Amino acid sequence: MNKLFKHLGVAFALLFSAVCFANGGEQAVAQASDAQMWAQLKDGAVGYTASKSEFHGQAINTYDLRVLDLRADWLAPALMAALFGMIAIFIVFIKINGISKLHHGFSGKMVYRWSKADVAIHWLGAIPCLLLILTGLVLLAGRFFIQPYLGEGVWAGLVNGAKQVHDVLAIPFMIGWLLMTVLWAKNQMPKMYDIKWFMVVGGYINFGPFKGKHPDAGFANAGEKLWFWAFAIFGLVISVSGMLLLFPNLFEPSRNLSLLALILHGVSAIIICAFSIVHIFMATAMSEGGMECMVSGYCDENWATQHHNLWFDEIKANGTLKYKE
Amino acid sequence: MATLKFLCDTKRCIECNGCVTACKNENASALEWGINRRRVVTINDGKQGEASISVACMHCDDAPCMAVCPANCFYKTEDGLVLHNKDTCIGCGYCLYACPFGAPQFPKSGAFGARGKMDKCTFCAGGPEENHSEAEMKKYGSNRIAEGKLPMCAELCATKSLLAGDADVVSAIFRERVAYRGAKNAAWG
């Protein structure tokens, strides 16, 4: 009997302490939930709100804060360097090195190289590309490099104009990019002789061990191929990221995806801009007779044999060589 | 100079949306349809741990919107408020991506639903136009700060959950409340 009471006493004591533990636990839960609530909000919890505006269900958005300074600290100066820095480098280079002359002068015989449609899609992409670079420069770097020298009204007009032009010209640029990438890719496949082309910097250096070299090149030389594929890849990145930024209502990207698109857009722009400057300099100033290709679609025979010997041999051999009437 | 801040005491917020209504009414002259400068977010709605918090522009010290704006249309007042110039705004939406609080909003105007000029909470401090001018009313809404008054949302909060004012004063009030509540960990943060 005594033993039974002892057991009951222990059981009662255990029960009581269990209740105590349970109560203590509840209080701990209530207190922890405050900390939990703030942790949830900071982690980007989405709740109910009567507002129908974008992203309003989330009190606090979470993202990597470093992306905010990336544009100001790195991308803006980099785009300035890609444009004005590359121009300066090329001017100095041409002053020192001189241009690439045709050794035998112009032959006057014009070889068919590009169709009228090819020339058209080149300029469909090229003219918007130039204006997109300039307006993009205003949008990315303008507030650091241009705004300090302008009044508020002039700056507002400039940046607003840049935005409108940038938005509209994105469409023809993307069409031009797509057509050029798809239609021209077959002539831009890397070949073994492209490595040799790079080894002598394309034969454009007029001094030192590279002087007088003429590496083999097909329809496109290795430098042009590098530019083509850079344009194809970063053109895709810049088009996709641009579409996300231009049509948020259509694609409904998250804010973090939009920030990522903004960074990728800037990086792609820097690369395309730097390549564009090289491309323009090569075509207009550096390579004598090069510009004619994208004016009439024909090139001088001496230009073809000097810069694209394998291509000229090929069309001569297979009978597709066509002279201008 | 004071540094003006909002603070929402979630222990007091009852999700009445009085602050939202007060804001809409006070700034009606500037607000286009569908724009909510302030909203109340309720997390864990109907479950244990339900909590409501009133959210608008928090007028950050180091504001992300200012960092990313391509037009550089934001400026900081001497009271620490983050305001913007709608004449310079180009409606690109970058501030919305960068803002942790979803404060910037855009009326849909133009072709393909392109964004119009950004609108957000001004702490009832108007904008860069002349105080209480018609242009200021139309673009930014009321300017109670110029009258020595605090934002309407906080002034009309029935439970005094939403506090607005000098950061030191506001946080002192909140700290005192927490002390009287006596619970550990009851404070935010």
TrEMBL record, chain A:
Residues 113-289 form the Cytochrome b561 bacterial/Ni-hydrogenase domain. InterPro entries: Cyt_b561_bac/Ni-Hgenase (IPR011577), Di-haem_cyt_TM (IPR016174), FDH_cytochrome_b556_subunit (IPR051817), Formate_DH_gsu (IPR006471). The chain crosses the membrane at residues 74-98, 119-146, 166-185, 226-247, 259-282. Gene3D superfamilies: Transmembrane di-heme cytochromes, Chain C. It is found in: Cell membrane. It is an enzyme of class 1 (oxidoreductase). It is a multi-pass membrane protein. Keywords: Cell membrane, Electron transport, Heme, Iron, Membrane, Metal-binding, Oxidoreductase, Signal, Transmembrane, Transmembrane helix, Transport. Its main location: membrane. GO terms for molecular function: formate dehydrogenase (NAD+) activity. Residues 1-22 form the signal peptide. Its cofactor is heme. PANTHER family: FORMATE DEHYDROGENASE GAMMA SUBUNIT, FORMATE DEHYDROGENASE, NITRATE-INDUCIBLE, CYTOCHROME B556 FDN SUBUNIT. This is Formate dehydrogenase subunit gamma. It comes from Shewanella corallii. The lineage of its organism: Bacteria, Pseudomonadati, Pseudomonadota, Gammaproteobacteria, Alteromonadales.
Automatic annotation (TrEMBL), chain B:
It comes from the Bacteria. The keyword Acetylation does not apply. Residues 4-34, 49-79, 80-109 form the 4Fe-4S ferredoxin-type domain. InterPro entries: 4Fe4S_Fe-S-bd, 4Fe4S_Fe_S_CS, ET_IronSulfur_Cluster-Binding. It holds the Pfam family Fer4_11. The keyword Iron applies. Keywords: 4Fe-4S, Iron, Iron-sulfur, Metal-binding. This is Formate dehydrogenase FDH3 subunit beta. It comes from Shewanella corallii. The lineage of its organism: Bacteria, Pseudomonadati, Pseudomonadota, Gammaproteobacteria, Alteromonadales. The gene is fdh3B.
